[in-house]
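== Sequence, structure tokens ==
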Amino acid sequence: MYGSGALAGRRLAVTGGSRGLGGEIVRAALDEGAVVVACARGGEDLAALAGEVGDAPLFTSVADVAQPGAVEEFVHFAVGAMGGIDGVVACAGGARGRGLDDATAEDWAWTWEVNAGHSARLLAAAVPHLRAAGGGSAVVISSISGWKPGPQAQYGAAKAAQLHLVSSLARELAPDGIRVNAVSPGSMLIEGKRWDRLRREEPGEFARLVAEVPGGRLVTPREVAEVVLFLLSDASSGMSGANVPVDRAQNAPGPQGY
């Protein structure tokens, strides 16, 4: 853990918070004493997480952040559940479509909205409540794909947009005492997800991916979550507008290499 009680009493809203990295961020924040409201598209996954953490102060809401109004409704729910907000984490993300010849306009639009668009709307909805709390911390989960190019372009472009969003809003919101930072994970081994499937189905390709990481091991969701907690805590009070890679010095963000 980052440190005992580092987020004691903090009221946090986390999108994409049911499983994978988002679920790990929620668990870690609860361990540090935070009160958390998490949303995700899957009600069953949220229920499973709530059952896992037991009596910890976790509230959940089913929401598809790519849908109009969903992020704003989530923030409204979070404020009602916790009485305010001290920090937010834009963790929901994803991609649709393949290469440029095959990706449709809808693939580009959805990938943009679920990454950069939802992050912007989350901050816009949360800022009045962060101001009311005297300031706070916002963390946007981007990716090393935002500046280390790899397929598909729509995903990398959306992740790069998140990084610019963070840099710009950090300056805009600084007078309100609101810090905005990004965390950019490298390739993570998450059960049932892309790289776990590659490991099981195409071990040769997975070995090529691991070869892109000098340490020979993919970064874990817990390692990324610890950095997110640091940025939410007072220990990072001097940081805003930063992009923190958590990738174990990974080179290319995929087995194709450069």
About this structure: The two ends are 35 Å apart (CA to CA).
